[in-house]
Amino acid sequence: MSAWHKQPGETVKKDENLVDLETDKVVLEVPAPEDGVLKTINQPDGATVTSGAVLAVIDTASGAQETTSPEKSTAQTETPAVTAMTPLSPAVRRLIAENNLDPAQIKGTGKEGRLTKSDVLDYMENRSEAPTKTADAVPASMRDRSAANATESTGATPRSGSVVRLDTTPAPDLESRPEQRVPMTRLRARVAERLIEAQQNAAMLTTFNEVNLQHVTVLRSQYKASFEKRHGIKLGFMSFFVKASVEALKRFPVVNASIDEQDIIYYGFYDIGIAVSSERGLVVPILRNANRLDFAGIEKSIADFGKKAREGGLGYDDLTGGTFTITNGGIFGSMLSTPILNPPQSAILGMHAIKARPVVEEGEIVVRPMMYLALTYDHRLVDGRDAVQFLAAIKDCLEDPARLLLNV
Q1: What pTM value is reported for the model?
Q2: From 304, 379, 396, 400, the catalytic residue
């Protein structure tokens, strides 16, 4: 309920707007069904009502009593109730008013049982046995428009006294546009809240680069079998990116920092958030002290996060903190995107799909597994030069994996 325009005891006229009914899209007017005096209001402003709920009662004559039992005399003046029935369009409301019809007697074929103009015209035609009466039931203005439409569509002139029928077949989309309203989960609501917070409280900027993963791919292919046999886990790409990110964070400490009001907090540890998709939404468990983990430890931790996320076993400690985040949209096929910061962190690395593309090496065109990288950073803290060089450092480590072992 939005707002009542009449109060109990006030006189109302038929079709006068009594109350505004607010839906999720529009505000609908609820007119008075008869002349009379507004007796009671059953639903106050701000109330939530459903279709068929009684909104108010109108006395149609002085001293009239509300009909509450079928045993009461039918000669007694009835008190019509204003109900939250399915709203009528202006065209339907006009047809019903002009022909003194009761919408409750007409079956609606529109969405959620709503009455359409065709429903009203069908009812007017079918309620009379004589075809001529059907023609009389339709207002002259409507018949004229129908005849004009028929003439335009067929090129023929209707014979005098003939009945021009409107196409009463419901539009196909009226029955094929389902909707479902479900409450937002607390996780989704929290994710939305943090994303809006990041947009409003940070000066986000994104820089891009591309990386040639030929050497990483060869290294994985060469040692993946022995790696899995020894450590019981597959050697993936993520461990290389975590290692490269830690090395770049060591070179550019400002990226491994955050703003706290008027202070800058530089972290002397490397807790890397790994964005993981689950049935409940996106979660970011934290890989703590990533600089102390070897490749096997990183891969095992990430696999454990994925299992917990699928089973709903991630705890509060798994999701709090973090100094830098990595998100991999490439597993869903993303070629390029601009990731959003995970506050209060100052940067996030976006990985993307690996695609074989032609590149030039030593003057020759060769095909290599290439990936676009994106780094979104808080420009309040990180300058563009540092952001570009930070991303270039990650690129260098990945294109020459020996750097990760030699720390060069």
Answers
A1: 0.57
A2: 379
